[in-house]
Amino acid sequence: MKTVLITGCSSGYGLETARHFHAKGWNVVATMRTPREDMLPRSDRMQVVALDVTSPASVAAAIRAAGPIDVLVNNAGIGVVGAFEATPMSTTREIFETNTFGVMAMMHAVVPQFRERRSGVIVNVTSSTTLAAFPLAGVYTASKTAVDGLSGSVAHELAAFGVRIKLVEPGYGPGTRFAENGGARMQGLIPDAYRPFADPIFTAFANPGAVTTAADVAETVWQAANDASDRLHFAAGPDAVALVQAKAA
Ligand SMILES: NC(=O)c1ccc[n+]([C@@H]2O[C@H](COP(=O)([O-])OP(=O)(O)OC[C@H]3O[C@@H](n4cnc5c(N)ncnc54)[C@H](OP(=O)(O)O)[C@@H]3O)[C@@H](O)[C@H]2O)c1
């Protein structure tokens, strides 16, 4: 029976992905900063483990607690929307600590066991912001695009050891806690001079067309984790898939 370790399972895409892999019969190591077992099925195939991807000690302890795994899903992430000039470098560093360096730290932690076993899959959850340039999302996009570039390159060297890397690119998911979790961080990031530009964008955010659900992402992570080919990119959700199709047209 295979084992998946997923980061950021307290809500949203990560929580649904943990439920999905469990429903498919896998062992699941559902990690979260503040462990809560009540949201997930009670089962001897479900282990809830504390993990903050920005803490080296926490990463080491979680990997020890998990034991051998077959698939790592780097889902944990935080967001920021705002004018670039108004976004403090401290906020930029905070975003990169989780979205970029956190992913690297988790990859460092699992690659040795995957390489030695000559098998394993790393699924990095980025964003549809890596598929097209969205306004007021520069810092967030940079943090995710770095993971995109990292994954494409490292996929080559790990393929030599039978280890695969996949990118899942979800579209806009207003159903998760993503906006709420970033709310405080985004205060004051639209200066008055940017209001005429930004207001219509926020109006459009509030009235989205096609959006991505947690179920879309969970199923796409599942497909990516089980894909035996060298395919790297997996858009998740109808809005993300439409961006890929528009680029191809
Ligand atoms: N929703 C969207 O519109 C959207 C679109 C494209 C991509 N994404 C990406 O999808 C992923 C999941 O987002 P979501 O929409 O499901 O948002 P969410 O509901 O806010 O979930 C994010 C998860 O990441 C966790 N997390 C944050 N910082 C962490 C850290 N330092 N260590 C470990 N876990 C941490 C959160 O845990 P806590 O409860 O401890 O904060 C939470 O479990 C993220 O990578 C995000 O960038 C989201």
Explain what you see:
The chain has one domain: NAD(P)-binding Rossmann-like Domain (Rossmann fold, 3-Layer(aba) Sandwich). It has a seven-stranded parallel beta sheet, sandwiched between helices. By secondary structure, it is α/β, with parallel strands linked by helices. The chain starts with a strand and ends with a helix. Helix 1 crosses helix 7, helix 2 packs parallel to helix 3 and helix 3 (89-117) packs parallel to helix 4 (138-159). It is globular. The model has no long low-confidence stretch (mean pLDDT 97). Helix content is 46%, strand content 14%. Bound molecules: NADP nicotinamide-adenine-dinucleotide phosphate (NAP). NADP nicotinamide-adenine-dinucleotide phosphate binds next to helix 1, helix 3 and helix 5. NADP nicotinamide-adenine-dinucleotide phosphate (NAP) is lined by residues 7-14, 32-34, 51-54, 75-79, 98, 102, 125, 127-128, 170, 172-173, 176-178, 181.
Shape: globular
**Total separate domains:** 1
CATH topology: Rossmann fold
- What is the rounded Rg? 18 Å
Keywords:
alpha/beta, 7-stranded parallel beta sheet, 249 residues, Rossmann fold, 14% strand, 7 strands, binds NADP nicotinamide-adenine-dinucleotide phosphate, 8 helices, globular, single chain
Question: Could you give a short description of this structure?
Answer:
The chain has 249 residues and is an alpha/beta fold. It has eight helices and seven strands; from the N terminus they run βαββαβαβαβαααβα.
